[in-house]
């Protein structure tokens, strides 16, 4: 029960009337016929139920106040003395954020520097979705198994426990939504929900008319009545953003969203809690996945007992031909997310072998690391070229991108074959 409901219940009980008979504009003395003693009886009862002293001089309420004035004054006072702020740990910036749900999952798993061995033992393979024309909004290029970390899938299940909460069990109002999210966060849960994110100021979506998307909440600030989310800001950068609790409520109750959920405020939220689990780095697995990559083998087949098997994608080195095909039959604008994911794959490969060298997991020669760094820098250039093309479309830019991709591909083949031939000792 929120504070105002509690106050109204006490007033109604002490005045021998129904809750629905009370109005904010009613005066305690004139309309409810209370005297000073009756007023103090209500105050004492409220102090018992709220377990707080209510200093009347500071609250500036008396028997001459209205019901609304009494409720507002007490609510604001309690907020002032109970200014709480809590933020659950996240890894920021997350090492991959070509997709928001990937960024959210990794920000939790890698929080406080944990689980790096697991992270660098994975995300070696890459895939390109063959039917990208039929699903223009889907991700074309992906780092495997990043996209398999969605709710209900188990790629991240080793380190994240998921709980679905049906919001119909709550008496959903703007303030109760905020209070329940605070309750979840105080219990150590990250909160993920689906909302019309075009209603949330400070994000890149607010200029749109409607967009159904996930919101990942990891903190709150009572003094500001804000929630902390991980998302893309108005400058298109991944960021920790403070959003107002009112904006989140508006995002939950947008007319378009209610149509999708058939009149309900929402169907559910998902609570995530971090789990601890041991993981020992396995260089043999790195070698296997590098072999898959060079052979363009569908790595999802290896894990089909646990994760969905994707037979409609091109894998590994074969993804270069698909990127070139996409550039040849390009849309009016290039999907920059594709090239950002491509860049993150090359950056992650460089970071992986540098990490392995620092931890004594693999003796990576400087020449090998230099080659991977060149690929990372080349991939970043390709991404910038795609952004340039969207501003000023020129055939020359596409030709330059294709040449740069060929160079990265050839260097990559040489580097990975060198690793598989056994140069450098791994354990």
Question: What do you see in this structure?
Answer:
It is built from 14 helices and 10 strands. It has 427 residues and is α+β, with helices and mostly antiparallel strands. The strands form 2 sheets. Strands 1, 4, 5, 6, 7, 8 and 9 form a 7-stranded antiparallel β-sheet that branches. A 3-stranded antiparallel β-sheet has the order 3-2-10.
For the structure shown, list the relevant keywords.
about 425 residues; alpha+beta; seven-stranded antiparallel beta sheet; three-stranded antiparallel beta sheet; 14 helices; elongated
Main sheet record: 7 strands, antiparallel
> What oligomeric assembly is this protein in?
single chain
Mean pLDDT: 91
Count of runs of 4 or more consecutive helical residues: 14
Global shape: elongated
Compute the separation of the termini in Å: 57 Å
Roughly what fraction of the amino acids lie in strands?
Answer: 5-15%
Structural category is alpha+beta
């Amino acid at each position: 029960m929120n504070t105002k409901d509690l106050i109204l219940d006490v007033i109604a009980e002490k005045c021998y009337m129904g809750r629905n008979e009370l109005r904010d504009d009613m005066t305690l003395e004139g309309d409810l016929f209370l005297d000073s003693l009756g007023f103090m009886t209500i105050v004492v009862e409220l102090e018992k139920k709220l377990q707080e002293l209510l200093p009347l001089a500071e609250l500036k309420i008396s028997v001459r106040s209205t019901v609304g004035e009494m409720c507002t004054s007490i609510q604001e006072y309690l907020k002032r003395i109970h200014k709480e702020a809590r933020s659950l740990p996240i890894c920021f910036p997350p090492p991959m954020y070509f997709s928001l749900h990937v960024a959210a999952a990794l920000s939790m798993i890698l929080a406080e520097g944990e689980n790096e061995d697991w992270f660098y033992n994975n995300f070696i393979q890459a895939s390109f979705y063959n039917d990208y024309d039929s699903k223009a909004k889907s991700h074309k290029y992906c780092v495997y198994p990043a996209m398999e970390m969605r709710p209900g899938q188990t790629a991240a299940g080793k380190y994240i426990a998921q709980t679905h909460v049906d919001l119909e069990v709550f008496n959903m109002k703007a303030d109760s939504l905020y209070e329940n999210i605070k309750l979840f966060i105080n219990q150590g849960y990250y909160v993920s929900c689906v909302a019309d994110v075009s209603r949330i100021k400070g994000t890149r979506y607010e200029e749109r008319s409607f967009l159904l998307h996930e919101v990942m909440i990891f903190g709150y600030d009572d003094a500001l009545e804000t929630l902390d989310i991980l998302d893309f800001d108005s400058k298109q950068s991944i960021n920790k953003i403070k959003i107002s609790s009112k904006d989140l409520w508006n995002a939950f109750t947008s007319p378009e969203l209610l149509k999708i959920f058939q009149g309900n405020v929402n169907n559910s939220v998902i609570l995530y809690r971090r789990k601890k689990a041991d993981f020992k780095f396995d260089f043999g697995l790195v070698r296997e996945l590098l072999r898959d990559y060079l052979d363009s083998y569908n790595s999802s087949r290896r894990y089909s007992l646990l994760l969905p098997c994707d037979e409609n994608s091109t894998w590994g080195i074969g993804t270069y031909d698909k990127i070139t095909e996409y550039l040849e039959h390009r849309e009016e604008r290039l999907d920059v997310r594709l090239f950002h994911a491509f860049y993150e794959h090359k950056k992650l490969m460089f970071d992986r072998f540098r990490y392995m060298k620092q931890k004594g997991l693999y003796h990576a020669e400087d020449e090998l690391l230099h080659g991977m760094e060149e690929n990372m820098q080349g991939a970043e250039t390709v991404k910038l070229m795609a952004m340039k093309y969207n501003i000023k479309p020129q055939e020359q830019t596409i030709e330059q991108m294709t040449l740069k991709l060929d160079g990265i591909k050839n260097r990559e083949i040489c580097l990975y074959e060198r690793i598989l031939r056994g140069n450098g000792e791994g354990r």
